[in-house]
Amino acid sequence: IQLFITGDNAERWSFYSLSGGVTGRFQIALGAFEPWLKQPISWIFGRGAGAFSTGEFSDKYPHNFPIEALTELGLIGFVVYVLIIGFTVKALIALFRMYSDDPEMRSCVAVLGAIATFSTLLSLKQGTIHDPGAIMIWYLVIARVYWFEQRALEFDLAEEEDLESDEFAYEEYDETIDDDYVDEQEFADERDDEDEEGLERNGLAPA
C-alpha cells in the first residue's frame, strides 16, 4: 500500500484513526439527537434546517443524512426520505425483474443499484440535507430509467394486443366470408333441386 499512497493517507486508514473517526461520528450523532429529543414540538417538524450548526460542535452538520433529516426536518422530513429510498428500491427490483433474461441490461441495472447503494452508505458518513445532489441524483436516475422502461414495455404490450385483435378480427371476417359462401352454395343447390322437381312434375324433365 505504501507504494501507492502517502504516509498521511496510511495514517488516515490506520486502526486508531478509523476507530477515532467512528467515535467522533457517534458523538456528533448524539449531539444532534439530544436537543431534538428534549423538544417534543421538534419531533414532528424538526429543529429547522441548519440547527445543528448553532450547537457547541466544531462541525457544521451531523455528517449523517438520515439523522440530519430527522432532527432538522422532523418526522415529516424523515418519512419523505424513507419513501424516496423505498421507491428507489422498488424501481430497482422491478427493473431487475424486467430484464431477468437480458444479461447486458441486467448488468446495467446492477451497476446503477451499486452506485446508488454506495452513495447511500456514504451519506451515513458525510451526507447532508443541505447538499443532497450527489446522493439524490442516482435515485432520480433510477426512477427515470424505470419510468421510461415501464412506459416502453406498456407500449409494446399494447401493440401486441392491437396486433392480436387485428388478427382475430381478420379471422372472424374470414370465417364470415366462408359461412356466407357456404350459405350461398347451399341456397343455389336447393334452388336447382326445386327446379328439377318442378320440371319432373310438368313432364319436362330432360331425357
Describe it:
- With 207 residues, this protein is an all-alpha fold.
- The protein has helices at residues 7-12, 15-37, 42-45, 65-98, 103-126, 133-201.
- α4 runs antiparallel to α5 and α4 packs parallel to α6.
For this entry, give a set of tags.
single chain; 207 residues; mainly alpha; 6 helices; 0% strand; flat
What is this structure, in a nutshell?
The protein has 207 residues and is mainly alpha-helical. It has helices spanning 7-12, 15-37, 42-45, 65-98, 103-126, 133-201. The protein is flat.
What is the C-alpha radius of gyration, as a whole number of Å? 37 Å
Average pLDDT confidence is 77
Q: Percentage of helical residues?
A: over 70%
Order of helices and strands: HHHHHH
Helix and strand topology:
Layout: H1 7-12, H2 15-37, H3 42-45, H4 65-98, H5 103-126, H6 133-201
Helix pairs in contact: 2-4, 4-5, 4-6, 5-6
